[in-house]
Design brief:
single chain; 648 residues; Arc Repressor Mutant, subunit A; 3-stranded antiparallel sheet; 63% helix; 5 strands; globular
Length: 648
């Protein structure tokens, strides 16, 4: 029996005949929802217990197993007794749902909304159908559950983006009047979405309602300034000026040029031509720096382009397709680790076709890709690839190539704690190189790298200069993701000052957290809100937060001992601390070691204290975590002093 799942509304399932599958009680549906959110990954039974009950009953683990057994019977009624389930599987310490990509309405919705650009008529049809899959709020019966909060927010943002993309398609097809009612309702319900205001005003103008278009822009300005405290962006201001001058064409010049060029390309370049793959990667690269849905779409399509190139058996083409995706990256945790590993594997396969001494620039790009996509990974391959790529690039007269491999060198500059000065040097070279050779994207990257490094070294005056510089570049070159990083930096800046009231810092972090919605960077945003709140509690001398539904993301192993201590469970905290792995070699390396230090001192784990002291010693002059540009847990030196005192 084929089963499809619905989460765009109340959680449900349908069999191959379209009949609802009986899922029993709310706890059964909660288990199913939790596994769908995990997207095929294993969810440990202990995590399910924590998610299902604020205070788990004595036989909570047994109850979860009972729920799973009932779900298996409902979802696979024809499965023979004692035969293993192929859909809801047991794996390691927990369970996973092995649903196909097309069997969950939310996953299908993502594919439609984040898919590659299509003709307007086809896009409108697809978006209309996809928006019709919504039966209510996503995961409707779990609105108060912390484990569902991030996924619900992400899907809600995706739906809002879909509404706006549908309006764009209608405008492109000349259906301006038809777009107005939906857009009017959309901005009324979501007044912070500037692009929706722009589309509504444009639709009114193209429908011959110039006065109404200007009234909408005035209404947008009032709401944005008075209720949200932000000024309208440049796109809204330009549109208002154009309408006032009555020089706005039926279709703006950029859209017209794009449509004509795309039409000419489709007409003159054969559908199977290899040049299309390289052109596609260029589009994906430009999409990625726009953030949000553009970044998601670029990430989804990138591996497909590489696979298509490999299928053609042309190593040089494959190398160009891999290397052309030179999107600067500043965050050291991958948004999609599985895809990153696939890209690395493809680059390694392609490298075998270019032995040392041949096609050196091509080899450097492939090695730089390995270094960049191996960010945070254990092992030495990424660092070795970064060193070799940099050696080659410095011998060639190719500034763009050098900037690309320096990005990989930055990603691999975390083999131990205390390397902020090295990263600052990389950032300084990127800025200088980019200014000389007009490499705007890498100039942005260089300033962000230096912002992080100067923060780690407690040079906030220097970090402030780089924040201001990168904000200016972002506005000039339309790089919306930059504002996410600088908002977090400014919250960190307030938190690092003991004179700033906690309420002011909390407000800054709320603004920074809000900017994560729709950023398209799951590797960046996962667990960050919880980590920021923990940093403020430590700043104020308070224990860790104990909310059962806190989403710690990848930082859970290092936070868990402190959470257990805050609950008064000292023995469990000590056991959790013994299971804590070495932190990933990334921007929060020192921060995670400092969390381990606090827990080790609290439970008198001398072995861990000795280990942490040795790891943190090289970073004695840095602020823990500040190198991320996001949070700080105070001077590393204070943790070293506490460890030394505790060890006696």
């Amino acid at each position: 029996m084929d089963v499809v799942f619905g989460v765009l509304g109340p959680v449900t399932a349908w069999d191959g005949s379209g009949d609802a599958v009986p899922l029993k009680g709310p706890k059964h549906r909660a288990v199913l929802a939790r596994l769908i959110i995990a997207r095929g990954r294993v969810v440990p039974v202990t995590r399910l217990v924590d998610d299902l009950w604020p205070a788990p009953p004595p036989d909570a683990v047994g109850a979860v197993r009972t729920f799973v057994a009932a779900l298996r019977r409902a979802l696979e009624p024809e499965r023979p007794p004692r035969a293993p389930s192929r859909l809801l599987v047991t794996e390691g310490p927990g369970y996973a749902l092995r649903a196909a990509a097309g069997d969950v309405d939310a996953w299908r919705f993502e594919r439609v909304v984040g898919g590659a650009a299509r003709p307007a008529e086809e896009a409108l049809k697809g978006l209309d159908e996809a928006l019709g899959w919504w039966r209510g709020p996503a995961y409707a019966e779990f609105t108060d559950e912390g484990w569902a909060r991030a996924e619900r927010s992400r899907l809600t943002e995706l739906r809002l983006h879909a509404v706006e993309r549908r309006a764009e398609a209608k405008l492109e097809l000349g259906l301006a009047a038809d777009a107005v009612p939906d857009l009017d309702a959309h901005v009324t319900e979501h007044p912070w979405r500037e692009d929706a205001w722009r589309l509504l005003a444009l639709a009114l103008y193209r429908a011959g309602r110039q006065g109404d278009a200007l009234a909408v822009l005035r209404r947008a300005r009032t709401l944005l300034v008075e209720q949200l405290g932000i000024d309208p962006g440049p796109a809204l201001r330009r549109l208002e000026e154009s309408i006032l001058r009555q020089d706005l064409p039926e279709e703006d010049a950029a859209s017209r040029v794009w449509a004509q060029a795309a039409e000419a390309y489709d007409r003159t370049v054969a559908s199977g031509a290899r040049a299309r793959l390289e052109s596609t990667v260029g589009i994906l690269r430009n999409l990625a720096v726009t953030g949000g849905g553009g970044l998601v779409a670029a990430r989804e399509q990138r591996m497909a382009a590489i696979a298509a190139a490999e299928e053609l058996g042309d190593a040089r083409l494959t190398a160009r397709v891999i290397g052309a995706y030179d999107v600067p990256a500043v965050w050291t945790r991958s948004d999609d680790p599985r895809q990153a590993a696939e890209v690395v594997a493809a680059a390694e396969r392609t490298l075998t076709a270019f032995p040392a001494g041949e096609q050196e620039a091509t080899r450097a790009r492939l090695l730089g890709t390995v270094a960049l996509e191996s960010r945070g990974a254990r092992g030495d391959r990424g660092r070795a690839a970064a060193r070799e790529a940099e050696r080659i690039a410095r011998g060639l007269d190719d500034p763009a190539l050098l900037a690309f491999v320096l990005n990989g060198a930055f990603m691999q500059a975390f083999e131990r704690a205390g390397l902020a000065r090295r990263r600052d040097g990389i950032g300084a070279e990127l800025v200088e190189l980019s200014i000389r050779h007009d490499l705007a994207n890498y100039e942005v990257l260089g300033h962000l790298v230096r912002l992080q490094a100067r923060g780690a070294l407690a040079d906030f005056a220097g970090a402030d200069e780089h924040a201001a510089a990168v904000d200016g570049l972002a506005e000039r070159h339309e790089r919306p993701l930059v504002g996410v990083f600088t908002a977090w930096y400014r919250a960190l800046r307030l938190a690092a000052s003991e004179r700033t009231a906690t309420a002011e810092v909390e407000a800054a972090y709320r603004d920074a957290i809000a900017r994560l919605d729709g950023s398209g960077m799951p590797g960046f945003e996962a667990g960050l809100p919880a980590l920021a709140r923990l940093s403020l509690r430590i700043r104020d001398g308070r224990p860790a937060q104990t909310d059962e539904h806190t989403d710690w993301g990848p930082y859970e192993p290092w936070a868990r001992p402190l959470v257990l201590l805050a609950r008064g469970r000292r023995e469990q905290a000590a056991a959790a601390l013994r299971r804590v792995p070495d932190p990933p070699r990334d921007l929060l390396l020192e921060a995670m070691w400092c969390l381990a230090a606090r827990a080790a001192i609290a439970v008198d784990d001398r072995r861990t204290m000795e280990r942490v002291r040795g790891e943190l010693a090289p970073a004695a002059e840095e602020l823990a975590g500040a190198g991320s540009g996001l949070v700080t847990f105070g001077p590393v030196s204070s943790y070293l002093d506490d460890l030394t005192t505790a060890l006696g």
